[in-house]
Design brief:
single chain; 408 residues; alpha/beta; four-stranded parallel beta sheet; three-stranded mixed beta sheet; 10% strand
Length: 408
């Protein structure tokens, strides 16, 4: 019986090769390799591909994984990594006889090829071929065995470049991170960084691991923006959110300054739609502008606990209610003060107010206040209820906190 290899050629079926791969994947783990062999469900047939055999082994390992036998997820992860290496060996024309050591020595040539195709940042060319040869000797492929299946899938599908292996990615990141060092110290610094990354003593943020080694990649992970209470600011920050997301960043957006539902707009009563319509635009932006095709945009939206629209904000991701005022793809957050938590603890009342009315009538820009300054302003606002401040609502602070926790 013949099986089809990754390069399209055929070879005789050899069960001992499958057994060798299974034993390698199970080595050192608390599993029985015979269980995986017996779980092989595919019918061996003429023309079966080696990819089909590998995928069946992965499915078998995952099916054996449970609470009592968690190590099977590492077996599946090793098989995933093994398949990746075989695919890349064939793509690069190394052939099936290539060993890990043979592969390591090709790192400098691989870097050069990447530079020619503009896949790697051009700054790698600041290293000599001798430097790259030494760096390539640090690569330890055995460390790829430490990933479970979920980690292997995430690493290969989200972070690696086309035809790139994990240790190459980590080494290239280390070399680029070392560039600001003095020339005589670069390699020793890069070695320390590579060892730390590859041994998972440190974890690189998504934009760094995904973007550091590609041209013009953004290296910043997280951004914070705040919308002021006007159309220009709102749409400017939505645009900024889209641009940040495009480059792989996550965005925290504060909407506490936006006037509440039913507030005045251009002197007209009950004209404002509140914060929810703008949050919905942020929600759709997170969907539309993904993070460099790596994942959906990550947008968290924060609102202060005193904002009059907070109750509707807490219902924003429930299934009931007007679907036009729902936002299921952002990550909601409630910004709380010490004063609020004190009232929760003491089972006291809490007051929702409209930031627009507070600012226009009392002059307090409430979202920008914190600590004692907030306490003083909030106390003055509550003393002004009915006399000056007319748009408000009182609730029990502990009940509100329970609502927040239910929403979470």
């Amino acid at each position: 019986m013949q099986v089809v290899r990754r390069d399209g050629t055929k070879t005789g079926f050899n069960i001992s090769k499958i057994r060798a791969v299974v034993n390698w994947a199970c080595d050192g783990l608390d599993v029985n390799s015979l269980e995986l062999e017996s779980s092989f469900t595919a019918r061996f047939r003429e023309g079966m591909t080696t990819n089909q055999i590998q995928n069946n082994l992965i499915d078998g390992a995952l099916s054996l994984c449970d609470f009592e036998n968690p190590d099977w997820r590492y077996v599946a992860g090793r098989l995933k990594m093994w398949g990746l290496k075989k695919d890349i060996f064939v793509t690069r024309g190394y052939g099936y006889s290539t060993t890990e050591k043979d592969f390591i020595t090709t790192y400098p040539a691989w870097v050069s090829a990447q530079l020619l195709t503009h896949s790697y940042d051009h700054r790698l060319s600041e290293y000599s071929m001798e430097d790259l040869t030494e760096a390539g000797s640090w690569i330890n492929p055995e460390l790829d065995k430490d990933y479970d299946y979920a980690g292997a899938v995430m690493l290969t599908d989200r972070y690696l470049l086309k035809y790139e292996l994990p240790q190459e990615a980590f080494l290239t990141c280390a070399l680029l991170l070392a560039l600001p060092e003095e020339k005589e110290n670069r390699l020793s610094f890069a070695k320390k960084v590579y060892d730390a990354i590859s041994q998972r003593k440190i974890s690189l943020a998504t934009p760094i691991l995904a973007n550091l080694r590609v041209p013009n990649g953004s290296l910043t992970s997280c951004f914070i923006v705040a919308m002021d209470d006007n159309l220009e600011s709102i749409y400017r920050e939505i645009t900024n959110t889209a641009r940040i997301s495009k480059q792989g960043g996550g965005v925290g957006v504060n909407v506490s300054s936006i006037r509440a539902t039913g507030s005045k707009v251009m002197g007209k009563d009950n004209a404002s739609g509140g914060v929810i319509p703008w949050i919905k635009l942020l929600n759709d932006t997170a969907i539309a502008v993904n993070q460099g095709s790596k994942r959906s945009g990550a947008v968290t939206v924060g609102i202060d606990s005193w904002h009059l629209d907070l109750p509707e904000f807490l219902e924003m991701q429930t299934e009931s209610g007007d679907p036009r005022r729902k936002a299921f793809d952002i990550f909601p957050q409630v910004i709380v003060s010490d004063e609020f938590m004190n009232r929760v603890q003491n089972n006291q009342e809490w007051t929702f107010v409209d930031p627009y009315e507070v600012k226009t009538k009392l002059g307090y820009d409430l979202p920008k206040l914190w600590g004692e300054g907030f306490n003083v302003a909030y106390g003055q606002i509550e003393l002004s209820l009915d006399k000056i401040i007319t748009k408000y609502k009182k609730v029990n602070a502990k009940d509100l906190f329970k609502s927040i926790m239910r929403s979470q």
